[in-house]
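Task 17 of the worksheet. Students: predict the tertiary structure of the chain below and write it out as structure tokens. Keep your answer in the requested format; marks are given for formatting as well as content.
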Amino acid sequence: MLFDQQAIGSEKTLAKCPYCAGKNFVKFGQRQKKHELVQMYFCKHCQKKFTSSITKNKTFPLRLILDSITFYNRLNSLEESAQKISAQYGIKISFQNIANWLKAFAEYLPFARMRDFIAQNYDKRSVFVESKMLHGQVYDFKYHRAKTNLILGEDFKNYKFKPLRQFLELIVAECPHQIFKNSSRRASEYQNVFDLDQVKITRRENMAVKNTNFVLQSVANNKLRHQILQEFMLVNDSVTIATEVPVLLDRDDLLHYKNSLNFNVPLDLNDGEAITGHIDFIQIRNGAIHILDYKPSAKKAKPIEQLTIYALALARLTSLRLFNFKCAWFDEEDYFEFFPLHVVYKKKRKKKLQN
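Model answer:
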């Protein structure tokens, strides 16, 4: 579990004033609550003071509430969750507190519709596959086995993604760690490589944005943003099946795309070289596999190369068509989506008939 005692009493700076939706506000001291110091803000536009609307009228710190919810949705009982969190934080909470939070924040917890079935049919020790991978730095690969099985089984459109499940099941045993440690090429390093003609980037409303805005209000340490958001979405939403998934693309993969599929992939590798990376989030929803990357200041970012390489790599590793993938990046305000197939395969425009 991802506990951080320093996060108690700290909140991420808010995006807008809850009264006028203005962004011209400043920090305005702190107010002592029973278990935390709460940051106050003053809006220069409407002249009002405010705190986070998420934690308003809540006795306990948001971070404690989120950890309680997450521990419960890791298939622990209300009583076990209350005991664990009380001991971890040194603050007495009851199972009724957690039950109340589950109800109060139900809009962020769509996993609730799956929980009873999974609890009845799985040993909680087999629900998650987790491994720390030392690939230059530590990456916490996590895979929700039970959620994946339910998603693949509940909709016939998702059944064809069984090879993705097989790939995720084998990562811990078969990941070629040495390649990730020695690789000098990272997917995140590539910029302005692909021809983006015919690539449509669409801004959408998405639950990932809502979750990010909710969760990151509890994170004081910016270095922990990815980690805490990944844990929350993997455990509590109904579509995220894996986080920090290692993928690689080698010379044979590039030759396959270029020669066999006639894709425009302007990347070159020598024998023994590979491009590597770790996918922040993999989701299955609406008949597609979604590759997501959390990017602070998403409106300014444009990680199309990085995400396209991730999609090319995952398609090869699973033997699934690139047609089945969508890519997106997001933060607490924006979500941008595109089809990686449109990056590497261009439809030929029909020539106008000559009179």
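Marker's comment: Residues 119-344 form one domain. The radius of gyration is 22 Å.
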